[in-house]
Amino acid sequence: MAAHTVSISIVRFTPDDLTLISIGCQHDSQIITWDWRSGNDLGVGKLMSPVNAIAVSFDSSMCVTVGSKSVKYWFLPMASDGLNKRTGLTSRSAILADKRNVNFVDATFCDQTNRMLAVTASGEYVKCYSWKDSGDFKAICLARIPEGLLVGCSDGLVRLFCLIGDDLDFLADLAPPTHLFMDPANAYDPQQLQNHPEDAIFPEPRCLVASSSSPTFVVGYADRSLIEFSREHNSWSFRRASLGHTGAVNCIESFPSSSSCMPAGTVITGGSDGTVRFWNFGGDSDDKGDIANILCPSLLKVVYLDENPDLLLDKRCIELVGPSQDDPNASTTMTPSGVQCTRVSHDGRSMVAGTANGMLYLIDLSFSDTPIIDVINAHDSEVSSLDFSDHAST
């Protein structure tokens, strides 16, 4: 299905699963609806500003796009309408009044009457409902579930609100089971996922995905973790997680099979986020012994070599209209960061990691907490390669 001239930034199926909606980037500026089973495009519309999010109504009759200075409703043609050629999409812009210069970042339809709620980049709610007390956090993303409205907030929590009445009535909040610099190897009891240090830093949720037909929803966080929550006994609780590197994976190596320090089949990765991660994708958790955790069983261990939390978080990307506010003299070249290479000793009892700033970290793998036993300022620039000699001391 080729119709966009440049890249596609958003795709979405309608709730009735009959129509696919695709939205092009700022340079493409098209919204196209598709009969995805036949591959025919049903209608096209011209976008006048970049789109940050799209919401589709419950009855699949319309969608709304939100972006910089824009909230626009689009009325969707259906494959069942018998259209055999592309038509123009009918649309209308929302009257924004004092919000006409605002950047909108997310939206959702609230109920079958097509009432819609949008969130701005500054964390405000716009349209159907008001929130009496927002505290010190801002709204970032939205999703509708049968119980009410899920709101991802800048303090890392997902809050559930009731949609009955003219206000958003608070029902409950859900904290992520992880925080920055948390080692999943220490998560072996459900209670540990609820108790966090007082100075814990939570990644902010960037997106929410929920379905009215499923008792679960998924949250995507700024550290690129995906957390699934499930409904059990009228409450929501953590179900499972996917925890990967934030940014590029710069190196990967297999752990020596002759060593007993890690389970057979363990793989080590080093990333631009300044972490070394130990993975084992074997299906039998019994082979992993005491190393397996309830948070992300395939991720055995994380060693943090850099204390900078910014390396663990993706920068938030919001489309804006007009010239970039960035420094025109700033370099756009990507500079190396984090762990560039790793090497495990032949006996599997120790390893060394080289970083982008020329540091060598010597890590003891013979202990379960894998302590860093030495840090060497070895090079003026990035360390690109490492190896152990046949002698244990070199």
Fold and architecture overview:
The structure is a single chain. This protein is mostly beta strands and 394 residues long. It has no helices and 28 strands. The strands form seven sheets. Strands 1-2-3-4-8 form a five-stranded mixed β-sheet, with no helix packed on it. A hairpin with a 4-residue loop joins strand 11 and strand 12. The protein is elongated, with a radius of gyration of 24 Å. About 5% of the residues have low confidence.
Task: Give me the secondary-structure topology.
Elements: E1 8-13, E2 20-24, E3 30-35, E4 40-46, E5 51-56, E6 62-67, E7 70-75, E8 87-88, E9 90-93, E10 104-109, E11 116-120, E12 125-127, E13 139-145, E14 148-153, E15 158-162, E16 169-174, E17 205-210, E18 216-221, E19 226-232, E20 235-242, E21 249-254, E22 267-271, E23 275-279, E24 299-304, E25 339-344, E26 350-355, E27 359-364, E28 372-377
Parallel strand pairs: 4-8
Antiparallel strand pairs: 1-2, 2-3, 3-4, 5-6, 6-7, 7-9, 10-11, 11-12, 13-14, 14-15, 15-16, 17-18, 18-19, 19-20, 21-22, 22-23, 23-24, 25-26, 26-27, 27-28
